[in-house]
Amino acid sequence: MEGDLKLMQERRRRGIIMSWVREGHQNQLSRMDDLQIWGMFLKLGMTVGREQVITLLQDLAVLDYIVFKQGMNEDTGRTVISQIELTAAGLRFMTLRKSNDDVQYNQG
Q1: Which of 38, 57, 76, 108 has its CA 20 to 30 A from that of 93?
Q2: Tell me: the pLDDT tens digits for 2-26?
């Protein structure tokens, strides 16, 4: 049961990220980074750590829904992700508006 809840939360959070990235593109905003996404989750009152955000972004990249630049902050030694954008598969997912086993579609 707990595993099912965790999977549902991850699917939903992935979908939220995809919606934010798509909305930013549609509004011709600068590409997002992991810190912005983490802050947006916190503003929504969602309990998520910065490392969880990094993992969610990496998951979406493995699924071929997004691409980004990944580096290391020399001062902190932490992974940083920037220049997040949808791939063709990510855009198709957002256009079809259908959830799947990996991502829950969320209206932006």
Answers
A1: 38
A2: 778 889 999 999 999 999 999 999 9
Are 37 and 50 spatial neighbours (Cβ–Cβ below 8 Å)?
no
Q: Residue 51 belongs to a domain with what CATH number? A: 1.10.10.10
pTM of model > 0.85: yes
What is the per-residue pLDDT for 18?
97
Provide the 10 A C-beta neighbour count for residue 99: 14
> Helices 34-43 & 2-26, crossing angle to 10 degrees?
110
Helices vs. strands in the chain: H and E counts, helices first: 4, 2
In a domain, 10, yes or no: yes
d(CA 65, CA 47): 23
Task: Look up residue 30 and give its DSSP letter.
Answer: P
Tokens coding 69: 């630049």
Distance from C-alpha of 39 to C-alpha of 32, rounded to nearest angstrom: 11
Q: Domains in the chain: how many in total?
A: 1
